[in-house]
Write a structure and sequence with these properties.
- This protein is α/β, with parallel strands linked by helices and about 270 residues long.
- The protein has 2 domains: about 130 residues, Rossmann fold (3-Layer(aba) Sandwich), CATH 3.40.50.12500; about 100 residues, Rossmann fold (3-Layer(aba) Sandwich), CATH 3.40.50.1860.
- Helix content is about 35%, strand content about 15%.
- It contains 11 helices and 8 strands.
- The strands form 2 sheets. Strands 2-1-3-4 form a 4-stranded parallel β-sheet.
- Helix 6 crosses helix 11.
- It starts with about 25 loop residues before the first strand and ends in a 30-residue tail after the last helix.
Length: about 270
């Protein structure tokens, strides 16, 4: 029995060491401080043996192109805080509109500064990967954003070679509002904006609860549905060499990832 004033001396032991709970891969995500959906989505999708690590990027709860552009200022610092001793395989900036406004190459560069051991990624790159994988050309887009952000996104998708048949936003200004829209409403909204000519329905934003109804929308629409968190996570898994065909999260997870976008923008690596 230990008594006050005694010194503890443990017996020599040799503990058994394994590969750890996350022995297959580790993925890191830089989340907006206002995001109410991403962590739960990634936890739902994570296969056995794949670790998911998060850090939060301080952001204003008011989403405009101006506030989104400021995310780049703290990107490197945020990346450096994601399990640096374990060195994640991929680190991704988890904001669709922010990826567009800040620019993919700029995001990759800043993540590489903070975490040179990881492949840098951002959400919108995962979306483009998924659309290419599905061989989509004509798309409809539903977002929670204000129309200045919607316009920037439409221009981005056009530059990437897609025909944007329509893009409709909910004109919500805060991340908190975006995260409070119900999954049932996302299902209704997606089917409302769908067009017969569209190859894919894309529901944009990592902070919304669209993943929860992606299978229902696909069944009702008879076509693939891409959501931001689904596409990002699928691309990150494939980049980390995880080829599991997950069920319950859309058709994209039945695809291996034939051609993924180059993301290593740091030529001095």
């Amino acid at each position: 029995m230990f008594q006050s004033g005694q010194t503890i001396q443990s017996k020599p032991r040799t503990p058994e060491m394994g590969a750890g709970r996350h022995h297959r891969a580790r993925l890191g995500f830089i989340m907006m401080s206002t995001d109410l959906a991403g962590e739960a989505d990634f936890a739902d999708m994570a296969p056995e043996g794949v670790g998911i690590h998060f850090t939060r990027l301080k952001t204003q709860d008011y989403t405009t192109t101006e506030t989104l552009a400021r995310h780049i200022d703290d990107m490197a610092d945020a990346a450096s805080r994601i399990q640096p001793d374990l060195k994640p395989d991929v680190i991704s900036y988890s904001c669709t509109s922010g990826s567009i406004v800040c620019g993919e190459e700029n995001v990759f560069r800043e993540i590489r500064k903070g975490a040179p051991w990881a492949q840098p990624m951002c959400l919108v790159t995962g979306v483009i990967d998924a659309l290419h994988e599905l061989r989509a050309k004509r798309i409809v887009v539903g977002t929670p954003y204000l129309d200045d952000v919607n316009t920037a996104e439409a221009e981005f998708l056009l530059e990437k070679g897609f025909d944007v048949l329509d893009i409709q936003g909910l004109n919500l200004s805060t991340g908190t509002q975006m995260g409070q829209v119900t999954p049932a409403y996302w299902r209704k909204f997606a089917l409302e904006i769908d067009q017969p000519e569209a190859d894919v329905i894309f529901l944009s934003c990592g902070g919304v609860r669209s993943l929860e109804v992606v299978d229902e929308i696909e069944q009702a629409a008879g076509k693939p549905v891409i959501t931001s968190n689904q596409a990002q996570f699928w691309s990150c898994l494939r980049r980390a060499g995880i080829m599991d065909e997950l069920t319950g999260f859309g058709r994209i997870f039945q695809h291996p990832g034939r051609v993924l976008s180059k993301t290593d923008a740091d030529t001095d690596r």
